[in-house]
Amino acid sequence: MPQLAQRVGRAKPSAIMVIAEKAKQLKAAGRDIISFSIGVPNFLPGEHVYAAAREALSHDSGQYGSNRGADVLLDAFLQHIGALGFSGYGRMNLSIGIGAKQVLYNLAEALLDEGDEICFAAPYWTTYHDIADIVGARSHVLHCGPEQNYKLTPAQLDAALARRPKVFLFNNPSNPTGMVYSGEEIAALAEVLVRHPETWIVTDDIYNSMVFDGIGYHNFVFARPELRQRLVFVDSLSKTYGMPGWRVGLVAGPEPVAKALTTLNSNHITSLPEVISAAAVAALAGPQEVPQARCLEFAGKRDIVVAALSAIPGVVCPRPQGAFYAFPDVSVAFGRSHHGVRIGNDVDFCAALLDATGVACVPGSAFGEPRAMRISYTCPTAQLRPGLDRIAGFFAELT
User: Fold this and answer.
1) Considering the entire predicted model, what is its pTM?
2) The domain made up of 6-44+290-396 is a member of CATH 3.90.1150.10
3) Right CATH number for 47-285 from 3.40.50.2300, 3.40.250.10, 3.40.640.10, 3.90.1170.20?
4) Is 198 exposed, middle or buried (0-12, 13-18, 19+ CB in 10 A)?
5) Cα dihedral sign for 373, 378, 384, 390?
6) pLDDT digit string (tens) for 364-378?
7) 183-213: pLDDT as tens digits
8) In the Cβ-directed half-sphere of 133, how many Cα atoms lie within 13 Å?
9) Which residues are within 8 A (CB) of 279 and not within 5 positions of it... i.e. 6 or more apart?
10) Strands 325-326 and 249-252, how do they pair?
């Protein structure tokens, strides 16, 4: 039999989906499962989004769309990023994708040759490392532990960029930690970036509208506008608008990058379907009450989660200020046992937690931080406290 391409051997199943699938199987078998594993917002968009989709269906042309994206969608995205604080962008600076994940993969194909280096902070979203492996790039991971609130420092960034990586990939707010960089922190990192002009900057900021405590969303180009010539901003409708299954990713950046992504689209996805584009326009340009209300709801859930985790002796949980994740350091459990089950690391911990209590969390090693686990607190509110109580009870039973 002929052999598969070598790059396929570098592709790995998502660790997040492996845990989610196991939890799903246990639930189907009759177990009482509370899932804190998968990062879906668990709410639906406003009715105006569905109305726009139905209207588009009633006038469907059945034709291919634009490789770059429908003009009306690009204009809605320009309006959206303008409200965030981006200025000076036009349609030629934009492109679309089948979700932010596909946009990031396209960016890897467009910016990285085999053997090039890409650097990013850990904890990181699992797909960063996986995409780099698939395209044959070398990942340089900058470890940012709980002792520094999971945030990258200017000194760390300066040392990393001295290696002249082709791409610096930055995530704010963060998945998996929920941490958000303040305007001052972004400005300090931007000063470092200005000193290293050889590196592309990709900001994966799909949680930009899900920020708590009045801290606001900030980007490097707000602090140093000259970085716009080599900075690419990635966004998505999945989290903000409760539309992960609609698969809409968007990107704004220098014209040559947007053109390259559009060319890649012409060779695989072609375009977004008309109905999806219409729904995306309605989400971006229509009433914002639903995402605003959900942001407030997630901030309240964050408070419940952090209070519960901080009450567990030995557990350290830096306070997240965005997205819908908490990332507690649970290493106090390592070397101990739960009803005879030895816990040596984060994978053991999450497996024992799921088997004993029915609570599904993702091991931190999937995100490059093996002392921790990720909690996605998008579950129904009625499940939140019982799930946290089960985690606390699990810790109390360790010997």
Assistant:
1) 0.95
2) yes
3) 3.40.640.10
4) exposed
5) negative
6) 999 999 999 999 999
7) 999 999 999 999 999 999 999 999 999 999 9
8) 13
9) 45, 49, 50, 52, 53, 56, 243, 246
10) unpaired
